[in-house]
Amino acid sequence: MRDYFSMTTATTITLASLIAITGCKNDTENGALIGAGGGALAGGLIGGWEGAAIGAGAGAIGGAVVGNLMDKSKEKQQAQADSQSAAQTQDQLAQEKLKQEKLKTQQLQQQLNQSQSGSPAPTTP
After folding, report:
1. Domain total for the chain?
2. What is the pLDDT of residue 125?
3. What is the per-residue pLDDT for 1?
């Protein structure tokens, strides 16, 4: 009996460790894997293989839910950062256009002043 428990425990710990260290592309998948590994470990220590299977399933669901919430939070933050960046870019473009219009207005004003004073207007590039 003692050898069975030691072998089951060692196998459960090894399986849980392998699942937990596997990386995924997002927090939902990572949460599911970490939850499955933790659940398998806890369930295996408490109830053997049956407990490990139940713990892995429950842990995977719980981990996926938490990971999904984290992913959505990150997406929301990224969307806010993107919209701020877009607004800044639009503002910079508008300021540049305003500068160009002011320069153009100044050049036209100079030409008008020169034409009224009788001197030839300089050509603008």
Report:
1. 1
2. 57
3. 46
